Amino acid sequence: MVKTIKYVINPDGSITLDFNGFRGKVCIQEFQKILEALKSDGITIDGNVKQELKPEYYQEEQEVVEQ
After folding, report:
1. Which of 11, 12, 27, 32 minimizes the C-alpha distance to 59?
2. What is residue 36's DSSP assignment?
3. Residues 3, 49, 44, 40: what is their CA dihedral angle, to the nearest 10 degrees?
4. Which of 2, 9, 43, 62 gives 20 to 30 Å between its CA and that of 17?
5. Radius of gyration of the chain (CA)
6. Can you give the residue ranges of every domain in the chain?
7. Distance CA 34, CA 32 (A)
8. Which residues contact 17 (CB under 8 A, 6 or more apart)?
9. Other CB atoms within 10 A of residue 38 CB
10. CA 54 from chain center: how many Å?
């Protein structure tokens, strides 16, 4: 499955990130990378970060080996 991250800037200025194709805690790791990249560009996140975890979060990431 292709991994994608969709960014939505809401009318109130908040940002929604939608992670698709991620299993397990990988999505949280990618989210942390995004926050660090924004911070290095001088963009800070104020306020609380609301996380709505999808069922895939509770599944283990499996490595696929092609032969």
Report:
1. 27
2. H
3. -30
4. 62
5. 14
6. 4-44
7. 5
8. 5, 6, 7, 8, 31, 34
9. 13
10. 11
28 CB contacts (<8 Å, ≥6 apart)? 57
Do the Cβ atoms of 21 and 29 come closer than 8 Å?
no
Select the more confidently predicted residue: 3 or 60.
Answer: 3
Q: How far apart are alpha carbons 54 and 5 in whole angstroms?
A: 13
pTM of the full structure: 0.68
What span, in angstroms and rounded, lies between the C-alpha atoms of 33 and 25?
13
CA dihedral 45, 50, 52, 57 (to 10 degrees): 60
Tokens of 17: 């990130």
Closest CA to 17 of 1, 4, 29, 26: 4
Give the count of alpha carbons within 13 A of 45, CB side only. Answer: 14
